[in-house]
Specification:
The chain has 18 helices and no strands. The two termini are 32 Å apart. Helices cover 80% and strands 0% of the residues. It is mostly helical.
């Protein structure tokens, strides 16, 4: 157990170091590189490349390189993105964004495969239940990994707070902050302009070093699991083979429930994209300055992590319908308030209230949508979750894609419209599910052969 636990901890801290860097950079892209929308364009490209990567690369790389070296190579793709930020231009940031996106899916797939195989191998030797060990391994991983959002944003805020000169933001510039922004580079770089290049290079150097440490940790301390060590891994690779994954993903769209869930899944990308790309730039950086971006995103990450744990535990008692209703009401209230609010430095607490509420609702969207997919499509989980990744990434691409083309109030109306559509479609899914359960129960009472479907409230 000690050796297996060591490998789990190595992967967990490797991801912590890597996403400390990437998470911090993602939050800052729209503020650091606002000229011509370069920052949000790079984020859009990342998720577009991630869509392609998810469809094709993971099974090929894992089969050829094994989990350890797939993780190592994919981490290097993230480091390339950090290096691209040192001299940010369309010729450096966009290519490195493509590289990161291509490395994203193999990284996560190899991690999941490694932990699953390691858990099954240990369970087989110890005579324990494989699912129990795997759940323990993933629990340890996410416990450590979730703190990356706090660490990365804390680093950025601490470094930028070292600026020797504090520039007062004029009332004229403040008038261009918020929902009715002026869509000019000058107003959106209020906070980033005064951040000296030396501080930016210090930050990028710290993030790059964190990524390099992650790679070294994996290379030196992680044990390789060979393909012939376990039949379990072969089974995983077979179920995610090149063409089977690609075809199954789109064949799954024949299920009308999957089609009805597309708006809800895309909304997850829309709402996360708005917070990272628009709220940080047009509200926080514009009115407070770039040093506060990290602190605001720490608030979001902390609330998100705590609420994910909380809602995961209480969903069994409340049911997912009530939780979805809470998330909808919370997000709707935030959107309306953001439309009406004119951000001002004197209202410092308000800047943290929005990400806190956003983190609460996002925790529900993430935990309950994943649980909904697992419950509805129990026999086709691989294809269902491939669709989940696909449509969430499409939401990110669209949200970041139009970020520089539209005023914030228009994006808020789009966000609200997608939210309403998502809830209507979700309601139809729940109705169909209830009808199916009712029909199954009636058939059973009449003596028809067939098991009664057991529903789990998530």
């Amino acid at each position: 157990m000690e050796r297996n636990l060591k490998n789990v901890l190595v992967i967990s801290f490797g991801f912590l170091l890597l996403f400390t860097a990437y998470g911090g950079l993602q939050s800052l892209q729209s503020s650091l590189h606002s000229e011509e929308g370069l920052g949000v364009a790079s984020l859009s490209v990342i998720y577009a490349a991630l869509i392609f990567s998810s469809m094709f690369l993971p099974p090929i790389l894992i089969k050829k390189l094994g989990c350890k070296w797939t993780i190592t190579g994919s981490m290097c793709c993230y480091i390339a993105f950090s290096l691209g930020n040192f001299y940010a231009s369309w010729y450096t940031l966009i290519p490195t964004s493509v590289i990161l996106g291509l490395g994203g899916a193999p990284l996560w797939s190899a991690k999941c495969t490694y932990l699953t195989v390691a858990g099954n191998l240990y369970a087989e030797k110890a005579g324990k239940n494989g699912k129990d060990i795997i759940n323990q391994y993933f629990g340890v991983f996410f416990l450590i990994f979730q703190s990356s959002g706090i660490c990365g944003n804390l680093i950025s805020s601490l470094i930028f707070s070292q600026a020797s000169t504090k520039v007062e933001i004029s009332e004229e510039n403040l008038a261009c902050c918020g929902a009715y922004d002026c869509m000019t580079d000058t107003t959106n770089t209020t906070g980033s302009a005064e951040s000296s290049s030396s501080l930016i290079y210090t930050l990028l150097g710290t993030y790059t070093a964190s990524g390099v440490l992650a790679v070294l940790l994996i290379v030196i301390f992680l044990d390789q699991i060979k393909l012939d060590q376990a039949e379990t891994e072969n089974e995983i690779l077979e179920t995610t083979s090149f063409w089977s994954t690609f075809l199954a993903t789109f064949q799954h769209l024949k299920d009308k429930r999957q089609c009805l869930l597309i708006p809800l899944t895309m909304y997850s990308g829309f709402e996360q994209g708005f917070l990272a790309g628009d709220y940080t730039k047009t509200y926080v950086t514009c009115a407070l300055g770039i040093p506060y971006v990290g602190y605001v995103m720490i608030c979001f990450s902390a609330v998100n992590s705590l609420c994910s744990l909380l809602f995961g535990k209480i969903s069994h008692f409340t049911g997912r319908k009530l939780l979805f209703a809470i998330a909808m009401v919370t997000n709707t209230a935030c959107i309306i308030a953001l439309l009406l609010w004119k951000p001002h430095p004197k209202q410092l607490a308000v800047f943290f209230i929005f990400p806190a509420l956003w983190g609460l609702s996002d925790a529900i969207w993430q935990t309950q949508t994943n649980a909904l997919y697992g419950t509805l499509f129990e026999k086709h989980k691989e294809a269902a979750f491939a669709n989940y990744r696909l449509w969430e990434s499409v939401g990110f691409v669209i949200a970041f894609g139009y970020s520089t083309k539209l005023q914030v109030y228009i994006k808020l109306y789009i966000l609200l419209s997608v939210l309403v559509l998502s809830m209507v479609m979700y309601g139809v899914v729940e109705y169909l599910k209830a009808q199916s359960s009712l029909g199954t129960g009636t058939a059973t009472k009449k003596g028809n052969v067939g098991p009664l479907v057991q529903e789990t409230h998530m």
